[in-house]
Design brief:
About 40% of the residues lie in helices and about 20% in strands. It is α+β, with helices and mostly antiparallel strands. It has a four-stranded antiparallel sheet, with no helix packed on it.
């Protein structure tokens, strides 16, 4: 027996409509939303610090199933900060997931609002398809150091001038004897330099910077620091060799500069091609990651960086021009 919709009570009709509407929505939600197999979440220990303070940065990557994750180069996203420490945990299995965790200690000496951008995490799924997931953005506020409320801002009275004794012994020990010692030092140095100049009347010409660099790179290889596990020491010496070469080659203060300062110095000088400056900057940043961020590269990467140091010398060295000998007649008398 068929029941007409008009004969149903009003509450019954409303209940039937609510039931079918909820069923359709739940069905759509279950078929339309698919959880990502990889998630990336970035956090910091504090969202506001004073200039020079340290803040802990953490990137947590969780993957489900048969996923192959690519390494993440965090230095590309944290160029505004100085990395004080760097630790990587994993990938390891936790609660049925493959978890990789990066922990860094950051600091900066410039005030302002810093945005740590979305960090791209690339991976290959079980179907060998390359995919990408991004972390969340983070805002870090760096404020100047606030003054201590206990500090006194008023101007204090000027202290009375000190009275200096004028006895003979005072002048003898504070002025006369030091002057005699200084004069004797320079006199001995002058006499010694005179004897040396007599022995070495003709000084040897200075070696080209690239020859010195090649010799030092060869000695670095002979030290076998990588085989002994002294990776950071290897990169420190490699960086110093290239910095010293560039300073001698172009007469630029590169050794005592940070990588960013050296990059600006080389770029502003106009002595080096922009492409070569970029290559040098990338090389020095790779060395800095090992020296300061405690990143341990693979053996193939270590060989590549050593070869890049040689390549920098190869492409920037001065090639001496040897004058052609005349094949004509003999010398005129």
């Amino acid at each position: 027996m068929k029941m007409s919709l008009n004969r149903l009570s009003k509450p019954a009709v409303i209940s039937i409509l609510i039931f079918f509407t909820g069923f359709a929505c739940s069905k759509s939600a279950n078929t339309g939303s698919v959880a990502e197999p990889v998630t990336a979440r970035a956090t910091i220990s504090k969202d506001k610090i004073n200039i020079g303070d340290k803040v802990d940065f953490r990137l947590l990557i969780e993957a489900k199933g048969d996923i192959k994750q690519s390494p993440v180069d965090l230095s590309l996203y944290l160029q505004a900060f100085e990395i004080k420490d760097h630790i990587q945990k994993g990938p390891e299995k936790r609660w049925g997931k493959t978890v990789t965790e990066y922990r860094l200690v950051l600091t900066t000496f410039t005030t302002g609002n810093y945005e740590i951008p979305e960090i791209s995490v690339k991976y290959t799924d079980k179907d060998s398809l390359e995919k990408e997931v991004k972390s969340n953005k983070i805002i870090l506020v760096v404020e100047p150091v606030k003054s201590n409320p206990n500090d006194k801002d008023d101007i204090r009275d000027v202290k009375k001038p000190l009275t200096i004794p004028h006895s003979f012994w005072f002048w003898l020990f504070t002025v006369i004897l030091p002057l005699i010692a200084i004069a004797a030092f320079f006199l001995v140095k002058y006499l010694k330099s005179g004897n040396v100049s007599k022995i070495m009347e003709k000084a040897e010409p200075a070696r080209p910077p690239h020859e010195t660099a090649y010799e030092r790179l060869s000695k670095l290889k002979e030290l076998k620091l990588v085989e002994e596990g002294k990776i950071r020491e290897h990169y420190y010496i490699l960086s110093e060799i290239i910095r010293g070469y560039l300073e001698a080659r172009y007469e630029l203060p590169v050794v005592e500069r940070t990588t960013s300062e050296a990059y600006k110095e080389m770029l502003d000088s106009g002595k080096i091609k922009r492409k070569e400056v970029t290559i040098v900057k990338d090389f020095l940043e790779e060395c800095d990651l090992v020296k300061f961020a405690k990143v341990i590269p693979e053996s193939t990467k270590i060989e590549e960086d050593y070869g890049m140091g040689i390549s920098i010398v190869d492409m920037t060295k001065v090639i001496p021009v040897i004058p052609e000998l005349s094949t004509g007649g003999g010398a005129k008398v």
